[in-house]
Design goal:
The chain has helices spanning 3-8, 15-20, 23-39, 42-57, 60-109, 117-132, 137-141, 145-155, 157-204, 206-211, 215-267, 273-295, 297-320, 374-381, 404-407, 425-429, 437-447, 450-454, 473-485, 503-518, 552-557, 562-573; strands spanning 334-340, 354-358, 363-367, 389-394, 397-398, 411-414, 423-424, 463-464, 491-495, 522-526, 538-543, 546-551. It has 574 residues and is α/β, with parallel strands linked by helices. The radius of gyration is 34 Å and the shape is elongated. It is found in: Cell membrane.
Length: 574
């Protein structure tokens, strides 16, 4: 299922319907479990027939007929067991198809926690592995335990009561296992997530860490996280292992009791010899699901926690998603209305409210010291961050109530530090869509990096990322700029586009941006590079939570008087 198909169809379906899509698999698994558990009665019935009829009559023909019937039924049992395992595997794939796209897309909707994507994907894998490995099957077998207990009562009431009492004790052990281990298992999962996230951040910054000699202290910190996780894991594992071992021991004792009591009843002529073996087999079948459920209890807690997390993601996605009508290419008309911005998760405004309207071919350069809010403003304008207040409209449509997949076709954005995704350069430029060579190379030419790409070993087919070529920061920047320019966006937003570019590359970029501006594209860019100011009609000055719009000519005229500029910015805020 493609992301676009999901976005237009499945994503608009209420999460409860997605949840119900696995119900047919549950029903089918229950039906196969019914067949499997009924056929588990074959072995004890066969033993009864052999001991009570075949041995007493000495009939070889009867033995052959009974054996053929048992083998035939047990063959059906094998097929039914394989079928229910296959059904759970298919259910796992259905969950992947239904939940996977929502989990993936949710990380882009939730601006406050994009780092949760690995955890959400891990939750999805946890649920899938729990199903694929058949760890859920004992819980499908549990409802059939009364069937075997009933059969034990038919063998003899005393044998039946031994099974009932033993089953109740095992259930109590299961409850104690749940109460004693659930909290520690969940805490261990959280601690493990913290340790893994810490390791991921170290990996992302390995060059800085290595150059600054931070490896040893960071190793110590990481080990402390892992030790905390291991301690919690061992606490929970110790309890669950203890109870599981007690359950296994109890099960063996119950089977011995069934054999011993059965032998006594045979001596009292209250039961046949074959019933001894049949009762023991039935005892094992009745208690096996409880025993197996105890063995899988730790995995069950993990899978249950992961499932609830997925349900929460689906519920929030179902509440936030809605039908949308794909737009035609919007007019080049950007309206910023009473906009107030803040960092994600913060209520502190970075800038006062302001209004800006840009028509076709208009351009603004945003200037200001580090930390003044330039990047936050750009991220809000392109719709990546939610504003604290106000609206940003392109062609009359609210950027923050516009489906990201549809909106992104008309917007180009390049961050200050470009990171390329694993794939070819052509795929990165085309945003991993089915782009034509003309569109891909045209974007690279406008960015001024077409010749640079051609000089790479495989040109546009050069792979980047793990196992691929290592590009310099300037080359990555060029590919990122070409990606932003791809398919001539209505609005082009660039964060420090001149960073890491040499003089020739910068001149090529200037020519391309000037061409786009003359063609009616709207251009907004933040920069410290004065060479790019010739592209801007106006300059938006940010400083100390204040802003001021001045023409580029006025700004250039007052560059020699920084105090005047600062005073103007403060007056604008007032």
């Amino acid at each position: 299922m493609s992301t676009e198909t999901f976005s237009n169809k499945t994503g608009t379906v209420d999460w409860a319907l997605n949840k119900s899509s696995v119900k047919p698999y549950i029903v089918v698994t229950l039906l196969f479990s019914l067949v499997v558990n009924l056929l588990m009665l074959v072995s004890p019935l066969y033993m009864l027939q052999v001991y009570d009829r075949v041995l007493s009559s000495g009939s070889v023909e009867t033995l052959i007929m009974v054996s053929i019937a048992a083998i035939g039924l047990l063959s059906v049992y094998g097929f039914a067991e394989a079928a229910r395992r296959k059904t759970l595997a298919l259910m796992s794939e259905q969950i992947q198809n239904e939940y996977g796209p929502v989990v993936f897309m949710s990380s882009f909707r939730d601006e406050n926690s994009p780092q949760l994507l690995p955890k959400k994907l891990a939750d999805l894998s946890t649920v899938q592995n729990f199903l694929r490995h058949g760890l859920l099957l004992p819980f499908f077998d549990l409802p059939f335990t009364p069937l075997f207990l009933l059969a034990m009562f038919l063998v003899h009431p005393i044998i039946g009561w031994i099974g009932v009492i033993g089953g109740l004790v095992l259930i109590l052990i299961t409850v104690f296992t749940e109460l004693s281990s659930r909290k520690s298992v969940e805490e261990a999962m959280q601690a493990e997530t913290v340790a893994n996230n810490f390791a991921n951040e170290i990996s992302r910054n390995r060059s800085v860490i290595s150059s600054l000699g931070m490896v040893t202290p960071l190793l110590s910190n990481w080990m402390s996280y892992r030790k905390q996780s291991s301690k919690m894991t061992m606490d929970g594992l110790g309890r669950s292992t203890f109870f599981s071992a007690q359950a296994k021991g109890l099960r063996q004792m119950l089977q011995v009791a069934a054999l011993g009591v059965g032998g006594f009843l045979v001596l009292q002529l209250e039961m046949s010899a074959g019933a001894i073996i049949a009762g023991s087999i039935l005892m094992g079948r009745a208690l096996a699901p409880i025993d197996q459920a105890l063995g899988a209890w730790r995995q069950l807690i993990r899978a249950r926690s992961a499932w609830f997390s997925l349900e929460d993601t689906m519920a929030r996605s179902g509440a936030s998603d809605g039908d949308f009508t794909p737009m035609l290419r919007p007019d080049a008309d950007l309206s910023i209305e009473s906009l107030m911005i803040a960092s994600p998760g913060s209520d502190a405004a970075l800038l006062p409210k302001f209004n800006v309207n840009l028509k076709a071919g208009a351009s603004i350069a945003i200037l200001g010291p580090s930390g003044s809010g330039k990047t936050s403003l750009l991220q809000t304008i392109v719709g990546a961050w939610e504003p604290l207040d106000g609206r940003v409209r392109l062609g009359g449509r609210d950027m923050h109530n516009w489906d990201a997949g549809d909106r992104g076709k008309y917007i180009g954005y390049a961050p200050q530090d470009v990171e390329l995704l694993p794939g070819t350069i052509a795929q990165n430029i085309s945003r991993f869509s089915d782009g034509t060579p003309e569109d891909i190379m045209g974007a690279a030419q406008k960015a001024g990096f077409h010749d640079m790409i051609l000089r790479l070993p495989e040109g546009y087919d050069t792979r980047v990322g793990p196992g691929g070529s290592h590009l310099s920061q300037g080359q990555q920047k060029g590919v990122g700029l070409a990606r932003a320019i791809y398919r001539d966006p209505v609005l082009l937003v660039l964060d420090e586009p001149g960073t890491n570019l040499d003089r020739a590359s910068l001149l090529g970029l200037q020519r391309g941006l000037a061409e786009m501006k003359s063609n009616g594209n709207i251009l907004i860019f933040a920069t410290h590079d004065m060479r790019l100011l010739s592209l801007a009609d106006n300059v938006l000055l940010l400083d100390n939570r204040s802003l001021k719009m001045v023409s580029t000519q006025d700004y250039m005229a007052t560059m020699a008087h920084p105090r005047q500029i600062a005073t103007s910015a403060k007056e604008g805020a007032a």
